[in-house]
Write a structure and sequence with these properties.
The protein has about 525 residues and is mainly beta. It contains 5 helices and 28 strands. The strands form 6 sheets. The chain has a 6-stranded mixed sheet with strand order 8-7-10-15-12-13, with no helix packed on it. A 6-stranded mixed sheet has the order 19-18-21-26-23-24. It binds CU-O-CU linkage. The site of CU-O-CU linkage has 10 residues, from strand 27.
Amino acid sequence: MFLINGQFPGPLIQANWGDWVEVTVTNNIQAPEEGTSLHWHGLLQAGTQWQDGVPGVSQCPIAPGETYTYRFRADQFGSSMYHAHYSAQYTAGVYGAMITYGPTQLDYDIDVGPVIVSDWNHIPYFSIVQNVMTMNMSEYPTYSDSGLINGRGRFDCSKPSYGQSFNDSNWLASNYPSTLQWSCVDDAQRSQFRFQSGKTHRLRLMNVGADGFQRFSIDGHTMTVIALDYVPVQPYTTDSIMLGISQRADVLITADASSTSSFWMRSELLNAATCGGLAPPGINEFPIFAEVYYEDADTTLEPVSTTTVKSTSCNNAPIDITQPEYVIPPSTQPFYQDLVLTMTVNDTGSWEWEINGQTYRADYNNPLLYDAADGQTSFPSDPQYNLYNFASNTSVVLNITNATPFPHPIHMHGHNFYVLNVGGVGAPWDGSTVNPTNPLRRDVQIVPPLGFIAIQFEANNPGIWPLHCHVAWHLSGGWYINVMSQPELLTIPAGERDLTCKAWDAWTAKNVVD
Ligand code: C2O
């Protein structure tokens, strides 16, 4: 796996709202060497689009042995994470939490900090990407066989695992390097959290997994949701919350049990096929546990609490109950664009992930770094870039239809988009908005199986902004477009391209990258 500063998850980055943040990244990945980059998920990068950390768009990958320093503003406050945006590399460990402190009117006593849930694969990520890109129509993408909370989890060694969900065991045998086999440990330590009785705790929940949807809860407690992604919302109370990949939720939990209590924190891991009702029952549908101990609890004993199964829906909470705290009504008279997500077969018989009939292929050597100072006058027009130029439109509605029977977490860079409406199976959008004066805003929203989401963004952040499914394999598979707005207002510093591309061009000239 991959570590950042010798840690997994990587170190917590903390800032105050408005701070400038500098992060110097050295790519020391070896055996096999590969590129990297870090993306600051959910930050707007207003005026600094080239710091967005996306190889093939805002930079070249940082070549092995090279160093690059990011410098950007913490222009959103709340809870998020940074992660590699090179292939599906983050799923193998290249991520960490980022918290930006900002104003809040809410009362709580203890900031517990990040609670990162993730699925975990015991197979090198590049093997999974390779499998996903070449598997035939009778196969489904892999499911992870285990999960983690803040980097720790316990795996049941009796499971017929290690990629059991690969339908093609020959493929696995020939691609899964035996030198990377490990011995299974049944009793790995779980993450532990301490609660103070009578106090209110703020937990910063985030799903930084590859493809698992996660329904989070703590036995014996309810939680009050106060922010979704980077947007404070009018508080509402629930017993569990759905976290699609890369979604965050800040919740307040009051420790109202006795001081000797202990409880399970659990995140029910649901795979997309399960969510769509298509998986064989019980496959990849299991809780990930961490331990919550009150101040006088005996921490040598496991919690004994049990809970009835919470909802297994993989949809986000209904948008009529998730309204932003601060009202910013959407612009009227936006430009409309339909986007349809489909899975089709390509000419080699493998799955292909397309938006409006086109799959995205990043060109890591030719990022979309418009550099007028270098004499560049236009962007590449090859259809593989999936570039949607919204020119000088000031507001854009994207009506995103999901033609697959699985849910998908749709993320857009550089914006908190409005979620105008969400619909389930077979219901096309009728053009209406659920809370017209104050629709939910966030940066990731789950599109239900065979359903739609209608989102709107204000084109007030000049640049080129990826919009993609955050399922790691779908991102690699090409379910991705580049949204371009107000290109005439975008000025990239002269020479920016060279900072990463010179070394990357030289390295790729000597090494084959697939
Ligand atoms: Cu979490 Cu394209 O990013």
